[in-house]
Amino acid sequence: MDHLGPGNVKHSNVITEGSATHVVTAILYGAQAFFVFDREFSTSESYQDIQGNLQAVIKKIPCISIEGQASLKMSEEEKSEANRFNCTFHGDFALKKNPVTFEDAIKVYADLPSMLEDNRDHAVPMNVWLYPLRNLDSAAAQLVRQINVSLVRRTQRILDGLDNTDIICQDMMKEDMAIKFPEIKAKLTKFRDLCLEYKLVFQKGLGNILPKIRGGGMEEELIEMLTSKERSPFQNDLMSAYLDDRAREINVVSSYLHIMKEVQVVYSSSELDGIVLDQANNYVVCFAFSSLRDKDDFELDLEKYLQEDFKGDSSLIPYDLNAAKKSAAEKWFRSGKVTAQTRQTIQLFLDFKESNKERENLAFCIASIPNKLITACSIHIYERGILLNSQYELPSKPGVPIIKSLEHDCVHLQIISSQLGVNSVASYQVLYQAKGTDTEWTEINTDAITNQVTIRRLLPYKEYRFSCRAVCKPGVSLCSDWTEYYRTSPCSPPGPPTEKCIDSQSIRVNWDIPTVIGVDVAVIGYVVEFRTNTMDEDNTLWHTTKTTTRDCTLEGLQANTSYSIRVSATCGEAGKSLPSPETMLTTIGVSDVIKRNQSTGANSEKFIKQSTRVVKDSLLIYRLNLEKKLVIKESFDQYTFGRKVEQGNNKVILLLGATGAGKTTLVNVMINAILGVKWEEGHRFKLIHEVTNRSQAESQTVIVTSYELYNQPGFQIPYSLTIIDTPGFGDTRGMAYDEQLTQMLKDFLCNPLGIDHIDAVCFVVQAALVRLSPSQRYIFDSILSIFGKDVAENILMLVTFADGKDIPVLEAIKAADLPCKKNKKGFPTHFKFSNAIVFENNVTESSSEDDDEDNDGDDKIDCPQQWRSTFKEIKKFFKALESIESKDLTLTKKVLEERELLKKTMTRLIPQITAGLSKLSEIKSLKACLENEQENMKLNESFETEIKVLMVKRSKLSEGFATNCKVCNFTCHTSCFLPNEDDIKSCAVMNKDGNCIVCPGKCSFSDHDREKAVLTYETKTEKKTIQELKDNFMKAYGKFMSTKDILDKLDVEFQLIEDALMNLIKQSSDCLKRLNEIALNPNSLSTMEYMEILIRTEEDQRTPGFEDRIVGLKKMKEESEILDKIARGEDILPKEKKFMKDKEERRQAVLKKSSPANVA
């Protein structure tokens, strides 16, 4: 230190000038290195976890050995986490290659000491030792004072605040929202630049002030500078508040975009133009952020402050914090009102997008479109590249429609307008949906002028629900909530009441049935309402009356008074229709002439539209257009005319008669009366128009056909009518064909698709018949045998060709005592008609040969008496039909079922009876041979005798199987359709115990086989010696037997078979008696009559052995006659007593022989 002594100091001028206070006495050289680690992280990761992982890894870095082994003991998980960090190197010297990864940083860290040893040029001064010049020379300058610690800290806070602001700005500029929206990043960049500029100015001011203070200057200048800063716009709180605003703005925009995450976001005007100008988009709906580019007042204050500071005009006047706070409160992203409006706009935008997602040529996007006149956001609408509106109000979801009233085919409703975007609504669209069809709905466009809408073309008695949506230029709004299901009326209103008869105290009206009716709905009655016509109609009560017909008389009215009358149809549980239009009628005065039976008259021309012309002549003939029911493979046809409306008001008539009786023509006459055809009209109708090649001796109707005529406006009868037309009996095709027709009628009555009740069985007979021929009597018996006894009162006679007063056929029917409804005179209830008059020409023939339809020039013939009388009789018939009580066909079907059972029973019994009779004949023959054994043996030891033997014959079946008993050699079930895999125990002839109910022995199911063959019997005559007969008999029983034993056995067998035969015949007789109890004409036979039929059958067929079977049947018939006499309590002859006594003795003897003791 000698060179620092007095007189040895070089540059002594430094001491004298006072420009230095210390001298450097030592310098330490070295180098500093900083490693900055960073990594990106997602919002789902925890910031604290990442920071903790990094700190744990960095703490291990000093553990690297100084020998240069750059390795750390880390787990695989720690290594994986460390490799996710990036590294930035900051140092006092430059590296050949800067580290990028954590692994690179470790290697550089390990190599740093060797770099300084090998190249000392890399070293820089680290520490400097100073020595005060005052110690060397008292004339040297010295540090007069230290700077106040509080001022230092204030200065440090300001600098730290500026540094922190810079760091936060850089972080926020990297945010996703700042990148997507350049407006946000531009504001942050501008703010950061202003802060950096102020920092430089502040640091420059500190550089000038601090040396002065250390040299003894006053600290006031520094205090003034710091105070100015703390009161300036650059104060830390204001800068933090500004950054909070930018963070809030970013968060708000981010939250909005998250809500609209399914919508495309465009980040530039060119990208927006690409969507708007795309020719595929007729309309573009854009959600526009309008305030992202708005300048902040705080930024303007910062710029202004720096400009004034540069000019040296800055003063201690503090910055107005209240103004700053007020400005912050008015920002769009902090306003609660603006937030609510923005979210509402976003929801409308998303709802509109959802409701139009299936619409083509419509695009949606989000963009930033600055507009100082709009706060926060707005909806922009573009049409074909042109901006229509920058503040478009999208319509919101309308309210639930209000149902005002319902009719059978329409609904009147009121639309509740949208609460938002009403000015944009061009119209409304109503949607409706029927219950049970969740995937189908119908749209109806309405007029925007009114909110009252009528939805038409609905179906009656069907439930619908309704919704609506607003329609604007680019699309439609969301649909409103659905209404509840509302059901339309079950049918249309009936026709308006029409005057039929007016009196001074009563009015009689009628009306047409409803023209439209719902599915599975039927009209069961009507409600007629009436009230007086007064000035105050709203307060006048309606009086009601109910009826089941389309005719009603209102009684108890006031004379010479006007009444309003209306009618509604009731449909049971389905409810009732709306009232018909009102009709105003006035009762007449007491002194006036009574108006009666004023009818509006029939108008049959309306039915021409429902018909097809079949004859073109001066009298036009039309055939009604019928609809055939879908009946597959049935022996009958069914047709309908019109549509079913009224339930339970359907009359059914069955027309029967011989061929040529005029049934078909009579049906056509009826249809003209029903449709209201008048004589003077130039047309007639036909229900049946058959063009066949059959002669008049053959029936023109081929099969049973039903015609269901549903009541409709214009009908002259107050009910629906079903006419069943049957083929004629007794034509040239004989009795076999008549039996076939009877079977066709049975099939129709028993078929579920047929009818369930009947009102009248009408026999159509010609008036001129003097007596019933055997064939006609047969026809009546055949038909009557079908019905039960309860139908007798519903049998009517329709007499055709009744041109005169006398009707001989009625005497014939009365003489035959046929069961039917009779009048007071004992004659059958009848109605007489003249068929031909209906289709006779009603105009005089014109001389013109022209085929023109215009017959206006022809002269009409006055209505003949026959027409009037025929139509009067038809009206009389229809009125009587209305009062006749319907008969359920349950008993009739029971008769048919019993007859079918009888037929099956007879089919089963006849083979058994035949076989039994043949077996009796065989036993008799064998007994006769054995009884004459001794006599025949004396004549010739090898004497042969002829004996009749019952042989079983197998006949193959072409199809199906038969169930045969192996024990009885008997076919028990001829056509067995049991599947092969099923047990034979399931066959129809087996009872619940598994025993057969058909075969003679009632054998078990195990004794039966299913075979493709049936067993029949025939009697053959064989020649055998007596010894052969005995041997065969003993072989059958398996033991030796004497002639007497054989005869005893034969007696037992004979008696058993004879009893079985009597039992079989009794079963048939019992079935016939049951028919006699329930059938109208059962054709029942007694047991003797039945045996007589069997005897005649044997005589006609004359099969082998018939003589012996006839003898056996006559003997059983004689026995039955005696038993019947005993049953009736009649006295029997001595000869008959002896016969029964001998039979009983033989029975007892046989039973004694067959007892177990005698057999043993």
Automatic annotation (TrEMBL):
Residue segments, region Disordered: 1137-1160
Keyword Lipoprotein: no
Keywords attached to this entry: Nucleotide-binding
Listed Basic and acidic residues bias regions: 1137-1148
Pfam short name (any one): Stonustoxin_helical
UniProt xrefs under SUPFAM superfamilies: Fibronectin type III, P-loop containing nucleoside triphosphate hydrolases
Record GO terms (molecular function): GTP binding
All residue ranges annotated as the Fibronectin type-III domain in the record: 397-491, 493-590
Family: Belongs to the TRAFAC class TrmE-Era-EngA-EngB-Septin-like GTPase superfamily. AIG1/Toc34/Toc159-like paraseptin GTPase family. IAN subfamily.
Name this polypeptide is given: Fibronectin type-III domain-containing protein
Organism: Esox lucius
